[in-house]
Each structure stands twice: as C-alpha cells, then as structure tokens.
Amino acid sequence: MKPCALRFTHYALRFTHYVLRFTHHVLRFTHYVLRFTHHVLRFTSHASPLLLSLFALLLTSLACSLPMLTGSQQNTPTLIAETPALPPPTATSTATEVPSPTAAPPTPTITVSHAFLPAEKVKSGPLIYDPTSVDTATEQRAPYGDSYKINLFERPFLQDMSYIPDLDIANFNLGMDDKFYYVSIGLVGANPNNPLGILYAVELDLDADGYGDYVIVARPPHPVEWSTDNVQVWQDQDHDTAGLSAETSDAPLPGNGYETLIFDGGRGVKDDPDLAWVRVNAGKNATVQFAFKRLLAENRFMFGVVADAGWMDIAEWDYADRLTKEQAGSPIKGDAEYPLKELFAVDNTCWQAQGFTGNYEEPKRCPKK
Ligand SMILES: [Ca+2]
Ligand SMILES: [Ca+2]
Ligand SMILES: [Ca+2]
Ligand SMILES: [Ca+2]
User: Fold this and answer.
1) Which of its termini does the chain have fewer beta carbons within 10 Å around, N or C?
2) CA of 149 to the centre of ligand 1 (A)
C-alpha cells in the first residue's frame, strides 16, 4: 500500500476514534474536529482522486451522525499546531501495522531507579588477611589455609592445579557510612573479569552461629561503576547452610543452601532497588567492592568473602557438607587427598566479627590476632 493510502487509513481510524470518544466527551469535541480538519487538509494534498472520494463519502456519513460538527469550529490555527508530525511509514509497513490511537506505547527497557547510591570514596576498615598461593603456584600447591573440615578453602587453582591469581583472595575489609556497609576484597590478580567468569560473594551470619544467613552475590561481568545489575541477595530460611554442624563437614549431605532470593538486581517486584551493589578495581585492597544497606545486617554480624569460578552454586553451600574430602581433593601437597579433584577454583575466608566482641569460639570466626 502507498504511503498516502496508509496515512489516509491512519487518519480515518483516528477520526473514528475521536468521534466515538465524542459521545462521552462533548467538551473535548472541538479539539478533535480541528485535528481532523488538519488531517483532511494534509490528506487532500496527497491522496488520489479515488481515495479522496471514498474519504469524502466516509466524512459525509460521519458528519450526518454528528449534528454538532459545524464549520465555524474548524479553523483555529493554535490547535492545528498541536498536532504532532507523523512519522512516514517504513518500507515494511502493512495496513495491519497502522497503530491504533488507543494502543499503549511500547514497553520501555526496564531501568532501575535508585534513591541512594553508595559513596565514591570509601574509607576501608582494618584488613583481614587470607593466605595466598602466589608464591607456591609454580609448585602447584597452596602453602596452607585449606581446612576442609570447617569449609575453609584455599583453592585458587583449576583442576590441573594451574594457578588463577584473579581467584586468589589476599585480604578483605569492612567500611561503613550512614547508609551502607562496604566490603572490599583484595585479590592477588587485578582482573575480576577474568574470562573464566568469577563469582564474588559476601556471606553474612547475623547470629554468629556459623550458619550463613544472607549471601550477596556478584556475577560477571563486573562493573567499574557502582551497579546493582548483576547483584543478587539470597537468604537461607531453613538454617542448613552449614549442614548439621558449623564445626565440621557433614558430607555427603543434601541441602538447599541459600534458597530464597530477596534481591535481584533491583528488578524484583519486592526489591529495595538500592539494597546491594558492586564495583571493581576501586582502589588498593578493593579489587572487588560490595556495598549493601546497613539494614540488611543491622549492627552485629559475622561476614566472610568468597571467589568462585568452579561449582558456583550457592544452593550447594557449604560445599564441605556436599562433598567428602575424598571427593573434593586437596591443594596441600603431602595431604592424602592431593591434588584437587571435584572442588576446585574456589577461595574463601574465615569470618570476621562486626559490632560485637564475642569469645572467638564462634564457628568460622577468624582467629584472634
Ligand atoms: Ca587466598
Ligand atoms: Ca547464622
Ligand atoms: Ca557443616
Ligand atoms: Ca537453606
């Protein structure tokens, strides 16, 4: 169909729509008539004689049913000027594609509106150090720091014991301001966006029983600027993240780990859009930096961090309760289970206490300095 005919069909549909609405909105009627007149004027400059006569016929029949349509209302230039220019039909348009005047606008891409952004400059807290395997990498081993029984891993290696510095946590720390806690991870490597695809996470234990209650997870690609896009927060509501005991491996034990999604990048129906954020390469000792609202953890909790490019399934945490040490293997040379077997490419840390003193008997807690 020719562009002028499409335009004609469109104007005719719009006119019919206005007329129908007129029966309910008499006071707005004048406006519609003027827009219609504008359409007629544009149409008459383009339409063929046949289409024009068909259109005139349509007008006549409609006019007969609309006694209030009078010539005196058809020439107010200000209202004509309000009519937006119509885009020309595209080459692929067909008659059925002429938009209805009542059609809803296309749904825009979902963008998350934020009320509070984390700070640009973050004051870090005291560093907690994790063993690193960089100095023993050529010997294809971790120096120490892998205590399978208590779910403490130092395995920044692939299954063939090749070393991945971007997986190797060197330190972590916690800072805060009025609104957010900030947990920063210092890695041996400098590329959190390693092509392996590394998940970074913060576990929160609100009652210091060694069972993680929330985990904040960032999946690649990781952004340089603060973003919630690839961040999720999951909760453990049935208290099984440490299996039967937080003190030891209970493998092979089934469980659902962190099973309840409470924040999905700010896009979830019930999400607080500002709950949890991540950015990378934010500075020294902040290769990966998380921000999460203080209300998530309140004032007293334990927290630890994870880098995982292996199993990457928080429903299987704690991994030490799923796999026996014989299945998982060991990165420590001299250990009966060396080398790594089913559990590889994962590094995590002991848990640091925030907001309470405790007695250092808390499961998974970092030792007293
Ligand atoms: Ca490490
Ligand atoms: Ca807990
Ligand atoms: Ca356990
Ligand atoms: Ca669970």
Assistant:
1) C
2) 17
